[in-house]
Amino acid sequence: MSMRVAVEQFTTPDPITATVTTMVDDLWRLMEQHGVRHLPITCDGEVVGVVSDRDVRVVLGLSAAEKMQVQAADVMSPEPVVVKTGTPLDDVADLMAQKKVGSVIVIDDEGNLVGIFTATDALNALVALVRKGE
């Protein structure tokens, strides 16, 4: 019987975040600057949503005046899928597939943001574990 790998072993730690009031152009700039496709969205320090590059692209075609009306709260997926540290990797991947999401928020027992686990992290984990022989 193999030991189950915890999600935090392949989680992207300390992810770049934005707040509910971050403007859409700034969201896009953050994603481009840091090479990420998902941003946890916070309100009063708590993660309340996730914005994907797809969410932002939908709005980028609007006029400058229209874009100035759009904040993260308007385009985010509210109530993001959240898992705790220690959750087995296979359970997280299964949950992502069931919910059809590209990322999950990883928190510790106190509810603090530890990181974000994305489909890319899942693929990296798969490669590492297959090569390791697990």
Outline the structure in words.
There is one protein chain. The chain is of the alpha/beta class and 134 residues long. The chain has one domain (7-132): CBS-domain, CATH 3.10.580.10. 39% of the residues lie in helices and 25% in strands. It is built from 6 helices and 8 strands. The strands form 2 sheets. It has a 4-stranded mixed sheet. Helix 1 packs across helix 2 (53-60). The longest helix has 14 residues, at 119-132. The radius of gyration is 16 Å and the shape is elongated.
Number of beta strands: 8
Percent helix:
25-40%
Order of helices and strands: EEHEEHHHEEHEEH
Q: Write out the strand line-up for the largest beta sheet, numbering strands in chain order.
A: 1-8-7-6
Coarse shape:
elongated
Under CATH, the topology is which?
CBS-domain
The CATH H-level homologous superfamily: CBS-domain
Runs in which pLDDT lies below 50 for 5 or more consecutive residues are none
* Oligomeric state of shown chains: single chain
Largest sheet: 4 strands, mixed
Percentage of residues in DSSP E strands: 15-25%
Provide the domain count.
1
List keywords for this structure.
alpha/beta, repeat, 25% strand, 134 residues, CBS_dom, CBS domain-containing protein, CBS-domain, CBS domain, CBS_domain-containing, 8 strands
Provide a brief overview of the structure:
Helices cover 39% and strands 25% of the residues. It has a 4-stranded mixed sheet with strand order 1-8-7-6. A 4-stranded mixed sheet has the order 2-3-4-5. With 134 residues, the protein is α/β, with parallel strands linked by helices.
